[in-house]
Design a protein that fits this description.
0% strand; mainly alpha; single chain; 229 residues
Amino acid sequence: MDALYQSAWHHPGIAWTANALLLVFGMRLVPGYLKRFVGLALIAICLDAWLTGALAPPIAKEHGKAVGIVFVILGDLRYFYLLERFTRTSASLPRVLGIATAIAFIVPLWQTAIMQLWPAPFQTSRTIFLSYEALFVLVCVLLWQVLYASRVVALTPAFAVFLQRLTAFELVQYVAWATIDVLLLNGQEWALALRVVPNILYYGGFLWFVALNAPPLEDTAPVPAPQRS
């Protein structure tokens, strides 16, 4: 099972297949105002799958930890950028991107601080993964309750539902990872096969979800998208 999980068929195979299908069949479903975002995110996630997967070049493997951290932050940034863009509608694009990036750094910085202060539990990659997943779920829920829930009610129903569903999608993905990692840490090696499911959601499902669920701007958005100013 470990050999299959570590193989190129799984990683980058799943990501490349899902995003190739999106490029060929799904881009026409993406509203015009999100095509640039989806296109850039598609490139980033395919690079992630290449540089962190079985086909990674030697230089990427040599700096695997740093490469992995960069792409984890970029992966989380997709979600936070969409939240900020549609709930901070009067802000400029650079401001939206800056705030979303700062939020995406909360979990890795928090995890780094915990690992420095209390290194004993973090001796394996699996415990590191689990701590990140648990922290992300905590931060995501807190941010939604404290910050975004009150903003979403001011949006049109279509956009409110989209962001609610997007948040649920993100939480399902991270809770699934965390649950599986708990099983693995308790010696349930068969659970490694289940980890393919949240991987599919992360590497392939996220952008497909956006393509299939983002409302058309001209019909439902309360205000125009952020401007470059």
